[in-house]
């Protein structure tokens, strides 16, 4: 009996499923995305790229001695910020829309801003908080409280420690400190290594492979910065200017930390590059990296120029804002950063193309494919994009996308923004932009974000067409914008 009942209910259930299946509407099947072109960014590299502007904080004995490179002979007694307040640093970053702050835990002078077990040359010997303070700890808690992520710099060159120049003991010391910094302070999103070193510094081999392996073991979502990556590369100068073109891809085998003669390669990257190692542009808001009473912040126009040449050329801008000897970010620096953020919002919050119609040479999967040109006007700048039909290029037909004013009202702008769907690789080698049939831009790579300021100033017209003339694989455009920058006035006009 029990068996029979079970059988009946099973049949009933199957029939019920059957009816459900056939009565539901036919499901639409979407066109799959095109294949990626390698190399691709990692999850953490993509997250980093979208930060756009991040902050460096150079702080230590140099802040109190008015110098840039300490000798290592500084007395820890000098380190005495009277009102150190990392909450003010974090609030300054957050107010400027900055989501990552990197602190110099140790600079070339060797003084440690945290109480390291492996040296006495640290805050422990300083009068600050009677030697019981920990700047790194306060920095991390303040950043976390403001929703800002943290990164750290641990200088390889150490002018204080006597183990320096003795390969084995110094590398052991350095690795021990890396373990302290990456185990005790929670999530660290970026670690900064550089090859900076004085002309007469003693010879010393750094065990980079050991360092990198240790970093990746201790922090799962970290990006390692150095001249040579592996995750983020130096842009080759300290002016905040990326090259044109600027590729996120490069051959890592051609790079070495501290090597001479590679700055041009670092600046531009390599369209044939075997690794995804995008560039970061480090530049200070003032002349020096450390705070000096005699220096003042750059002007808003200088900062905007840096922004266009870094973020606007497929890079992340790492702007240094040095705390002063009181332990606070100077008010004029905080004010400048706030103006910088407000200016960027003024320029980019409104996309003047927002109400335009968009048309393209072709679209993958046809009208219902999900890859139409209208995707360039939505708010997703990564995973929704216009994809043309791949065969077009083989057939000798070019790829283009066009924005047309709808209300019979002229579009007035002086900045054009183009973004590639870099989650599937960087593709565009050359592109041209036309306004009502007249060429106004003739340029190379795009990447995550490319900003073009129109050389002649504000232009107006009805139809903006972007032609993609050379590409590594079918171009994928995730966003297009027309903007009016009221702060920019081309010189000589
Ligand atoms: C470092 O080593 C190179 C060659 O290995 C040598 O020419 C140079 O003099 C050394 N420099 C110092 C400061 O010892
Ligand atoms: C980078 O590597 C690729 C692949 O091996 C190669 O085609 C390209 O020429 C290399 N670039 C340079 C500048 O050597
Ligand atoms: C550091 O900046 C704070 C905030 O602007 C200011 O109150 C303080 O006087 C500055 N300290 C020095 C030494 O300039
Ligand atoms: C788009 O149209 C809406 C509704 O007419 C209007 O409020 C908005 O200002 C327009 N945006 C632009 C950028 O022209």
From TrEMBL:
One Pfam family in the UniProt entry: Alpha_L_fucos
InterPro entries: GH (IPR017853), Glyco_hydro_29 (IPR000933), Glyco_hydro_29_N (IPR057739)
Gene Ontology biological process: fucose metabolic process; glycoside catabolic process
Keyword Membrane: no
Principal EC category: hydrolase
Stored SUPFAM superfamilies: (Trans)glycosidases
EC numbers: 3.2.1.51
Family: Belongs to the glycosyl hydrolase 29 family.
Name of the protein described by the UniProt record: alpha-L-fucosidase
Natural source organism: Cucurbita maxima (Pumpkin)
């Amino acid at each position: 009996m029990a068996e029979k009942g079970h059988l009946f209910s099973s049949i009933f259930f199957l029939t019920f499923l059957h009816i459900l299946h056939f009565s539901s509407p036919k499901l639409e099947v979407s066109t799959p995305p095109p294949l990626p072109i390698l190399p691709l960014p990692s999850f953490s590299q993509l997250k980093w790229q979208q930060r756009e502007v991040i902050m460096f904080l150079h702080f230590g004995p140099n802040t109190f001695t008015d110098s840039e490179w300490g000798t290592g002979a500084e007395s820890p007694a000098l380190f005495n910020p009277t009102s150190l307040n990392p909450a003010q640093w974090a609030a300054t970053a957050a107010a400027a829309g900055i989501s990552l702050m990197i602190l110099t835990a140790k600079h070339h002078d060797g003084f440690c801003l945290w109480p390291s077990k492996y040296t006495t040359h640290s805050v422990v010997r300083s009068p600050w908080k009677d030697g019981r303070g920990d700047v790194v700890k306060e920095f991390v808690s303040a950043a976390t409280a403001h929703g800002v992520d943290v990164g750290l710099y641990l200088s390889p060159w150490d002018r204080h420690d006597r183990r320096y120049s003795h390969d084995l003991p110094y590398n052991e010391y350095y690795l021990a400190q890396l373990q302290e910094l990456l185990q005790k302070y929670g999530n660290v999103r970026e670690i900064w290594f550089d090859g900076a070193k004085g002309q007469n510094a003693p010879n010393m081999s750094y065990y980079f492979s050991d360092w990198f392996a240790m970093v990746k073991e201790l922090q799962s979502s970290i990006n390692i910065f150095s001249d040579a990556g592996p995750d983020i590369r130096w842009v080759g100068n300290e002016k905040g200017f990326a090259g044109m073109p600027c590729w996120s891809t490069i051959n890592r085998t051609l790079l070495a930390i501290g090597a001479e003669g590679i700055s041009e390669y670092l600046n531009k990257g390599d369209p044939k590059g075997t690794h995804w190692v995008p560039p970061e542009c480090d530049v200070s808001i003032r002349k020096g990296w450390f705070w000096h009473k005699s220096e003042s912040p750059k002007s808003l126009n200088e900062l905007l120029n840096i922004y266009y040449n870094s973020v606007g050329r497929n890079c992340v801008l790492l702007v240094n804002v040095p705390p002063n000897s009181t332990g606070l970010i100077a008010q004029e620096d905080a004010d400048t950063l706030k103006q910088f953020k407000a200016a960027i919002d003024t320029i980019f919050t409104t996309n003047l193309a927002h109400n335009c119609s968009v048309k393209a040479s072709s679209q993958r999967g046809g009208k219902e494919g999900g890859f139409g040109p209208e995707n360039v006007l939505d708010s997703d700048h990564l995973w929704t994009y216009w994809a043309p039909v791949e065969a077009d290029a083989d057939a000798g037909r070019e790829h283009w996308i066009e924005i047309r004013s709808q209300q019979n009202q002229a579009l007035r702008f002086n900045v054009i923004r183009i973004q590639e769907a870099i989650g599937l690789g960087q593709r565009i080698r050359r592109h041209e932009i036309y306004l009502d049939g007249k060429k106004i831009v003739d340029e190379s790579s795009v990447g995550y974000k490319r900003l073009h300021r129109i050389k002649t100033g504000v232009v107006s017209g009805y139809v903006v067409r972007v032609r993609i003339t050379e590409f590594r694989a079918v171009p994928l455009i995730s966003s297009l914008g027309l903007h009016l920058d009221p702060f920019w006035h081309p010189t000589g006009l």
